[in-house]
Amino acid sequence: MTFPRVLGLAGHSGSGKTTLAVALVPALAARGLRVAYVKHDAHRFLMDKPGKDTFRVYEAGARAVTIASAEQWAWLQRPPIPAIEELVRRARRAADVVLLEGYHDSSYPKVLIHRRGLPLRTVKPWSTVLAVYGDDPRRFKDRPPARIPRFPFDRTADLVEFLFGR
Q: pTM for the full model?
């Protein structure tokens, strides 16, 4: 299996999606891969600091603002929000692997993360799910098919090896 160039991390809020992303970044970097991260936030987020120049200009109605330093840069833009395919295309320009968090209904391959005590995120079609990570969700009516490999939280290295090889 060739490794996924775009990998979704799907799961209920609090299941461990971001924790897995944080573990994947150094594991993939150790394989010589550059990683980009695209997160869908179902809530309103605040990327800038109130009172700072870019915040003030954006609040005044600028369509887009950018800030750049010697170490990093950021771009903040008003809607329309690009489709997931455009966001992935932009991320692929900067990285070898793109991790998507929160785009559960996308057609990209994904890992379903599940934590006991939380509802199971239903992903359809199941054919997009490469693996289940976390607690084994056997008790759910609409659970992942048995053919999908399962990796417990303490076997992250095995999941990485399954997805990206040695």
A: 0.90
